[in-house]
Write a structure and sequence with these properties.
By secondary structure, the protein is of the alpha+beta class. The protein has a domain of 81 residues: Ubiquitin-like (UB roll), CATH 3.10.20. The chain is built from three helices and five strands. A five-stranded mixed beta sheet has the order 2-1-5-3-4. A hairpin with a 3-residue loop joins strand 1 and strand 2. The protein is globular. The protein starts with 13 loop residues before the first strand and ends in a 16-residue tail after the last helix. The structure holds FE2/S2 (inorganic) cluster. The site of FE2/S2 (inorganic) cluster has 13 residues, from loops.
Length: 139
């Protein structure tokens, strides 16, 4: 199988997103990422879906749950402001902080560096592409 050569992304178009606690960083060209049909285009959920990073999204990205809750650690200036629907939904999230956002609603609006952290109550589910499976007792 021949792998397609990846062209380097010009620095002025580079988006770099780090997902904590994994510490997994993904990079792509701003405006060139396909939409994965979960959450708003260019949302952190969309980025996660494009790069096989598991971010729970029970409602499918419709701003109707809080399972995609994350903390925006870096890059707030380049991320969309939350609208009233997102703020109302976030009020129901556990571990709410000033930098809390819904991963399906917060949109990256320009190239730059972004760091998001998935709260600890979601961390046990974090793996590449799917939730961890716990073994049955005695198995
Ligand atoms: S996936 Fe349900 S609110 Fe984001």
């Amino acid at each position: 199988m021949i792998e397609e050569m990846k062209k380097p992304v010009p620095a002025d178009k580079l988006v770099r997103v780090t997902f904590l606690p994994q510490g997994r960083t993904v990079e792509f060209e701003f405006g060139a990422m396909p939409y994965e049909h979960h959450g708003r285009p260019m949302s952190f959920l969309d980025v996660a879906q494009n790069h096989d990073i598991f971010l729970d999204h029970a409602c499918g990205g419709a701003c109707a749950c809080t399972t995609c809750h994350l903390w925006l650690r870096e890059g707030a200036a380049g991320v969309s402001e939350p609208d009233d629907d997102e703020l109302d939904r976030l009020d129901m999230a556990a571990d709410l902080q000033l930098n809390s956002r819904l991963g399906c609603q917060a949109i990256i609006t320009r190239p730059g560096n972004y760091v998001v952290e998935i709260p600890k109550w979601n961390r046990n589910y974090v793996s590449e592409g799917k939730p961890l499976t716990l073994a049955e007792p005695g198995s």
